[in-house]
Amino acid sequence: MTIASPRLSPRALYEEVAEQLRQRIFSGELRPGDWIDELKIAEEFGISRTPLREALKVLATEGLITMKVRRGAYVTETSPKDLADVYHLMALLETDAAETVARRGTEAGLAELSALHKELESSLSNTARFFDLNEAFHMRLLELADNRWQLQMVQDLRKVMKLHRQNSLQKAGRLEQSLAEHRELMAALVARDGERAAACMRQHMKGGLEAAI
């Protein structure tokens, strides 16, 4: 007799809750320093506090939430030094990825990046879409570099970076500057110029940090 296996949800409840809170943080609905009202959120989601607390543990591991003894959970506040450190590490990792893809990336991979860049060019008037496409471009570049440890580290660092996305949105001229930096990077990738691609990525990260602080 065959015993049917129990059906499992594709994602645990606490993961769904973590994703909802993550998006509220990234959108600025929950801002750095804000206290997480566990009772209110649990009631809003219609859940017990157990999956909520598990979700908060996940976000704390990602650096998005800070747990304070006898005070609860808060959206992480980062200092200018914290941001500088994050961007420093991202620059090291993504600069290496850009050089790798320029030198060893496939034509199909470069075509994917070019298509993403074209979408980025047409989304300048839509800041939310611009940021989504920008992130998609960077993550695809890292995937094409084919170093899963590098990819995982950048994914974690970018979550902390996005705590200050609103600062970047508000800085006049940053989106245009970012797009110009992307054009230079894309040209270097297509030209298979690894050294130039690395330099372009380094400059792009420098501009991002200046806008975030």
User: Architecture of the largest domain in CATH?
Assistant: Up-down Bundle
Q: Low-confidence segments, ≥5 residues, pLDDT <50?
A: 1-10
With helices defined by DSSP (H or I, 4 residues minimum), what is the helix count? 10
Rounded radius of gyration (Å): 20 Å
Element order, helices and strands? HHHEEHHHHHHH
Strand content of the residues, in percent? under 5%
User: What is the CATH class designation of the largest domain?
Assistant: Mainly Alpha
Oligomer: single chain
**How many separate domains?**
2
Distance between the termini: 64 Å
Determine the structural class based on helices, strands and strand pairing. Answer: mainly alpha
**Secondary structure tally: strands:** 2
Strand order of the largest sheet: 1-2
Largest beta-sheet details? 2 strands, antiparallel
The level of helicity is: over 70%
CATH superfamily of the largest domain: GntR ligand-binding domain-like
As for the CATH topology of the largest domain, it is: Four Helix Bundle (Hemerythrin (Met), subunit A)
Overall pLDDT: 90
The coarse silhouette is elongated
Describe the protein in words.
There is one protein chain. The protein has 213 residues and is mainly alpha-helical. It has two domains: 13-75, Winged helix-like DNA-binding domain superfamily/Winged helix DNA-binding domain (Arc Repressor Mutant, subunit A, Orthogonal Bundle); 80-212, Up-down Bundle (Four Helix Bundle (Hemerythrin (Met), subunit A)). The protein is built from ten helices and two strands; from the N terminus they run αααββααααααα. The protein is elongated and about 55 Å long. The N and C termini lie far apart (64 Å).
